[in-house]
């Protein structure tokens, strides 16, 4: 008798719980930092790491942050579109492709976490500030970290784990 599990249990949609966890953790940490730090306040944690509240009106590395406001809606639409596409992609991914499903779920959770900020505040809340000497890496947040880890996992999957088709 065929397995009668619901479709979401057989597909990559099972990994959506990871996305929800990322969104909740991202929003909680942003709220905690926003409530306890003044804008641009720096709290030194380690000799190479600070907590500092920053607002990113642009994209990665503050790209287009001075564009006049249209970028808010452009990046929000981009994140919403990407999220919808990723959910569709997850539906098509077999549950057995764990690494790929988890990578998509991490990217989705990060995209949604930053989308929420853009829609509510008009900017993304960043607070993780790594530096070496006087050289600072652009501040980022947990959503950005999830997107990065998801992209690295996707590359790992693509190069090392993806089932290869045999040449004809």
Structure description:
The protein is an alpha+beta fold. It has one domain. It has a four-stranded antiparallel β-sheet. A hairpin with a 2-residue loop joins β1 and β2. α2 runs parallel beside α4 and α4 runs antiparallel to α5. The chain is globular. It starts with 6 loop residues before the first helix and ends in a 7-residue tail after the last helix.
Detail the topology: elements first, then pairings.
Elements lengths: L6 H4 L5 H21 L5 E5 L2 E8 L13 H23 L5 H24 L2 E9 L2 E2 L5 H20 L7
Antiparallel strand pairs: 1-2, 2-3, 3-4
Q: What percentage of the residues does DSSP assign to strands (E)?
A: 5-15%
How many domains is the backbone divided into? 1
Largest sheet properties: 4 strands, antiparallel
Q: What general outline do the C-alpha atoms trace? A: globular
Unreliable residue stretches: none
Radius of gyration over all CA atoms, rounded: 18 Å
Mean pLDDT: 88
Class by alpha and beta content: alpha+beta
Q: What is the rounded distance between the termini?
A: 34 Å
Q: Using DSSP, what is the number of strands?
A: 4
* Helix content, binned percent: 40-55%
Order of helices and strands: HHEEHHEEH
Highlighted features:
single chain; 168 residues; alpha+beta; 4-stranded antiparallel β-sheet; 4 strands
Concise overview:
The chain has 168 residues and is of the alpha+beta class. It has helices spanning 7-10, 16-36, 70-92, 98-121, 142-161, and strands at 42-46, 49-56, 124-132, 135-136.
